[in-house]
Structure formats: C-alpha cells, structure tokens
Design a protein that fits this description.
Layout: H1 9-19, H2 21-41, E1 46-55, H3 58-67, H4 89-97, H5 100-110, H6 121-127, E2 128-133, E3 138-145, H7 148-170, E4 181-186, H8 199-225
Antiparallel strand pairs: 1-3, 1-4, 2-3
Helix pairs in contact: 2-8, 5-7
Length: about 230
C-alpha cells in the first residue's frame, strides 16, 4: 500500500486559497476599491515648504566661543540659562509662525482669506505646521492649501510676517547675546503636484488590508469546514 506524504503547511495554505479563490479575490478587490473611493472623496491639498534659520548673530557666537560663557551649550548652540528649551531661536519662533493671529494676517496678505474673516486654532493648524529640527537652528514650515498658488502665496506671506516679527522683537534685546536672527535658507516652494491624498499609498494599504482580511476569511471557512 503506497504511503501518502503528508501535506506541508504551505501546500495546505495554497490549497485553501485556491478552493476559496473567489471569496479571497472578492475581499481583496473590495478593500482596494474602497481605498480608492475614500481617496477620491478626500480633498486635494498642495504643500509649500520653506526652511528658516533662527540663530545668534555671528559676532555673538564668536564672542561666546571666545569667552566660554555659561549660556553656551555643550552642543555648540547658545541657550538662555533660565529656559534652555523654550528660549532658543527655533523653539521660540516655531509656535509663533503657526499662531492663528499671524496665519490670519498672512492669509489676508496673500489674498486667500476675506478681510473680515479670521482663523481659530484648529483652522490654523490645518493650514500651517512649523517644527523645530532637533540638533540644528532650523525651522521647517509647511503650508497646506487646495491650490499650488495659494499654498505658495500663504507660505511666502507667513515667512514675511515671521521675518518682520523677528526684526521687531530682537532689535533691542538686552543682553545682546540673547538675540536671534531669522533668515530664509530655502524659500517657499511652488508645488508641482498635490501632496494629499496619496493615491498610490492608499491603494497599497487597501490592498494589504484586503489580503489580510481575505486570508482571515479563508482560514475561518477552512476551520468551520474541518
């Protein structure tokens, strides 16, 4: 009597998938289509990005390095000894670039918000993000708008407002070693394509979730049959 070789787990899995191939494919196609539908229904947004530097003037840095004053941090950056995290240039100015008042004024400057309208905290947060880059005296600014032109104009207006505030606030800072000068490293970009929604990423996620769900369905059906 011939001896039947037992099936390997991989063979049993492939056999189960083939047996329930219609259900498997239906779930995968449905999940991928749902991801595509959700993507199409999402609003189109363009992102304009800018890179800003906020650091002490060169003469202040040179003097601090020469005298080794206490406010010079171990990483080579100048800090306020009373509040080293908040009082650094990027840490101080990044939140101000996203403040509803500043974003509202910049939107008026850019002509994308009616003069009588204003933004609250949530609206401003949806339009603008500004983050301090750790380990550097830099701020990354990202502005989101439904058109590339609006995103670019608003980003440029926010940068202009930020520079004006910096010049006003830091002009008469005493002691002078706490001054921070804002400069534009990379000006606001003009987006060439939408940054959101990301069709390829969403379809990939929908397909992966569909495969997982379909595999679970096949496993359940095989278990109930057994």
């Amino acid at each position: 009597m011939p001896v039947t070789r037992p099936s390997s787990p991989a063979e049993r899995c492939l056999r189960a998938l083939w047996t329930d191939r219609i259900a498997f494919l239906t779930v995968v196609v449905a999940a991928t289509a749902a991801a595509g539908f959700v993507t199409v229904m999402q609003p189109t947004l363009y992102a304009s990005q800018a890179l800003l530097s906020v650091k002490p003037p060169a003469d202040v840095v040179a003097e601090a390095l020469r005298t080794k004053r206490p406010y010079l941090g171990p990483d080579g950056h100048l800090y306020d000894a009373n509040d080293p995290e908040r009082q650094t240039g990027p840490g101080r100015y990044a939140p101000r670039l996203t403040a509803p008042g500043l974003v509202t004024l910049a939107a008026h400057d850019a002509g994308i918000l009616p003069p009588a309208a204003s933004l609250d905290d949530q609206q401003a947060a949806r339009w603008v993000t500004a983050e301090r880059i750790e380990g550097a005296d830099l701020i990354r600014l990202v502005v989101w708008q439904p058109t590339a032109d609006a995103a670019h104009k608003l980003a440029a207006a926010i940068v202009a407002r930020g520079l004006a505030i910096n010049q006003h606030d830091e002009a008469n800072v005493a002691p002078p070693e706490l001054r921070r000068i804002m400069m534009v490293i990379d000006p606001p970009t003009l987006p060439s394509a939408p940054a959101y929604p990301r069709l390829g990423v969403n379809l990939s996620v929908g397909f992966a979730l569909g495969v997982l769900a379909a595999s679970a369905l096949v496993a359940i059906r095989q278990t109930t049959r057994g």
